[in-house]
Each structure stands twice: as C-alpha cells, then as structure tokens.
C-alpha cells in the first residue's frame, strides 16, 4: 500500500448543508444514552460506562439543532488519487478524506480507541486499519469491523461535483470523532422470573462486553445477565499492565441451568462462557508470604504501584505482563530485577535477536536480569529473601507473573468439552460441542483462518473482542465465522512493539532495519512462508502485513529477504 500526497490545487468555495434522514435519527436515538444495559435487570437507561458524561450528553442532544453545521473550503476533486487518504481541516475539527474506486468518503480522522491518526494507517478493500493497534473501520459506514475498541467512526456524507461537498451530521460529531451505535432497550421484565434469562454471559472481560453490546446493537431486547467476579463494570484491562453475588460453580447443559456459589440457580436459553484466566500460583515454599502480588484487577495494579515505590522489586517471569510491569516500576522502585527461565525475554514469541535487543533496552533503564533461573524458595527474614537455582537475592518486594490458566474448573460434569489444559475447543462460530453454548476469549482454542484453520489459543485483547461479537451474531442466527488476523501490541519505555499473525512454530526470523537503534521489522517464517510480523518504530508496516494476511494472500520468505 502506497500513499502519495500531492500538493492541493487552488482551493474553491464549498457550501455545506446538513442532511439527516429520519431513519438515521430513529436509529441513533434508540436509547437515551446510546446504550442499553447488559447488566442483570436491564435498566432501560443502563450503560456499560465506557464513555464520559460529556459523550453521553452529546448523544442525548445529537439532533436537537439540525441546522448546526459547518462550511469549509476543502480541495479540488483531482487532488486525490484512488487509494489515497488525507486529513483535511474543517471549522471545529479535522476529517479523514478518502478516495476509493473514484468515490469520495469522509470519516473521523482519529481511531476512537486511543486516538491514533488514521491517515497514518492502511487503506484496503473499503476499510481503514489503525496504525497502532490494528482496529479496522468501514470507510462506507464508519462502523468498527475489527477490534480493539467499542466505538465506531463518525461518517460524513460527501458529494462531489467539480468540488468536494461535505454534509455533516452535526458540528458535535466533527468534534467528538467517534460514534456510538444505537442499541435496543430491554423489554419489560414482567415476563421473566428472577431465575430465568434469555442470555447468560459468564465473564465481563472484552469478550463478554462485546457480546452484550452486539446483541443490543442488533436489536435484541430480551433479558441479558452478565456475571463476573470483578468489582468493576467492564474496563480497559490493558491499562492495568458485576452482577451476581458469587461465581458460577456448576453448569447443567441438559437442563440449561447455572448454579452459583451462594446457591442461586439461573436458567438460560443461550450461554457465553468467557471467564478469562486466573494467575498460576507458585508451588514452592514461602509462596504465601506478604508482599507477593499477582496482577489481575485494578486493585492489584494500584497495590503494586504503591508498595513498590522506592523498594527493591523482583519480578518472577519475563512474560509480556512481567516486562511491562518492570518498565513501569523502573522509575518508581529503588531497583528492579527480573528472573526468567530462558536466556532472553520473549524468545518463543519474538526470537532470540529481538528478545536480546529488548533486554538491552531494559538494562539501559536500570533493570537487572537473572536469566536461566527458576525460583526455588521464598524466605521471610528482616526483609524478604528469594532463592533461585543459582543464587539468593535479598529483596523487599515481589511481583510474580508466572503465567495463567483457564478459569474453567466449574465446567466439570457440565457436558462441555474441555481439553487437558483447561481450554474449551470451539468452532468457527464460537460454539462449543453443546448447542446454544458459546465460548470466547482466553479460554478457547479455535480454528485460525490464516493458519489453515489450525486450532490455536490467542490470548489477545483484540481477538477476545471479535470472538464476543461472533458469538453474539450466531446466537441471533446470523451465521458468521471468525476470520480476523491476530493483532497484538505492547509499550515499554515509550517504545511500542506491534505484532500481527500467529508465529507459533516459526523456524526463521528475517530482520529489516536496525535492532541496536530499536527501529526494525521482523518477519517470522515457517518453511518458505511468512506467518507473523513484529515491529518497533516502523509504522504502519504491521498493519499493512495484517491486511495482506486478511486477504488470504501468502507472503513468501523471498519477498522479505
């Protein structure tokens, strides 16, 4: 994908009018705040609370002044070639102008997830992919088509004559740069008994949240109950790095009944299982001492940040989560040490060369590494003592990140298939072996289209969003298969690593750029085919490769050597 921005021709006068079809008014105002609650009692003004009060106020007042529009002089129709994008200034904000197949389109210029400039992303087959985290949006509707994120782009109507004309919904839409889809209200609960629901969602992570939202966006007005052990409504869990009184302890898929720890029983028609994973506990002497933390909730993150300040912090495990915490604590703790079982971090995921370059970046930021080591004992003395297979470290604070396991033990005797590692195998439609029972998120293995439908587990934030959506659509009888490409990212010391594809089993890594300068792209190959890509300071290469993977076209090893 190439971008070629020409100098604008002589600007011409453009007059703008607002055109709001009545059906659009009705659609966008289905709920007073743009949401219908996915929570237990389905209050008609409920919200998943991922928008600010200002956003809600904007949604409520969206059509109160239909003449509130903007005028602007933009550009000549010949300024853009097919396949080009350009940010254009308008009174009150900017717009992303797109030309595809001779047609002009205009949408919000920022990704509603974290605000990435979409003009630096990738335009392909009627959609634009965010350069930072891979979210995709239709250029025709602005709708989100691949995740992460919950909101869509605002779409602005374009009419071309000899100049380009913009028909904006409202000035507020231009300023907001995001759009919440309309959602159905929950119907009266008088027809439901307390122990019956149409849809039960176990887990309130990204898969559960998007499942609930998708059901409402598609007009589903029946009862939805979401149960979770979290104390908070659905939130942005990467920033760390409900409804029922207790956990589900058993399921009976024959009678379609869930039993909770407090004895409450709930009958369901459709079920989504998306409980996520639980941290793997260290099985060694002293593992229950004080100052040992596992990162699972906002409370965990707050305690780690507070108690590690000016302490000697030890992180057990050089996973992505562990390394992210190490980077965060480097400026807060007195010292930071990382203990890992491999010789470099991320060897299995990113390869030895990339892992060593990242390790060097950490060492330059005062992080010590004790690699090829395993913790054998934790002892309490005046401070805390950590004993590994080769040494003893006298420290005062520990954060343990030794992996996680699927939270699926409650499925024993449920009739739902679970493999030896605790994962739930699902089909392309996210359905388990039991009709009406779906699963999504970190707990599933599913057929990955880009790897010839190989059954894989992809514990990524983006993938969980999509799996929740696929499950919801299939609950409604809209047969939809999962086909998206895994996209992962992390940030450490102000440097972002982006990753697309599924590199499990790679046998070679082709690197372009400079590892020492931390400006590179790494292509992961198996035999003669590229199966994954990672980059640092090389945007938007990962988004470009992700679009190629999505198209089904193969990238050969010779193409990147």
Biggest sheet record = 6 strands, mixed
Global shape: globular
What is the name of the CATH superfamily of the largest domain? FAD/NAD(P)-binding domain
Strand content: 25-35%
CATH-derived topology of the largest domain: FAD/NAD(P)-binding domain
Number of domains: 4
CATH architecture type of the largest domain = 3-Layer(bba) Sandwich
Give a quick set of tags describing it.
561 residues; alpha+beta; FAD/NAD(P)-binding domain; six-stranded mixed sheet; five-stranded antiparallel sheet; 11 helices; AIF family member 3; FAD; 2 iron, 2 sulfur cluster binding; Rieske_2Fe-2S_sf; metal ion binding
Can you describe what's shown?
The protein is of the alpha+beta class. Strand 6 and strand 7 form a beta hairpin. The model is unreliable at 1-64, 167-171 and 237-243 (pLDDT under 50). Helix 4 (206-217) runs parallel beside helix 9 (461-475). The longest helix has 15 residues, at 461-475. It has 4 domains: 22-176, Rieske Iron-sulfur Protein (3-layer Sandwich), CATH 2.102.10; 189-277 and 406-475, 3-Layer(bba) Sandwich (FAD/NAD(P)-binding domain); 292-402, FAD/NAD(P)-binding domain, CATH 3.50.50.60; 487-560, FAD/NAD-linked reductase, C-terminal dimerisation domain (Enolase-like, domain 1, 2-Layer Sandwich), CATH 3.30.390.30. Strands 10, 11, 12, 13, 14 and 26 form a 6-stranded mixed beta sheet that branches. A 5-stranded antiparallel beta sheet has the order 1-2-3-8-9, with no helix packed on it. Strands 16-23-17-18-19 form a 5-stranded parallel beta sheet.
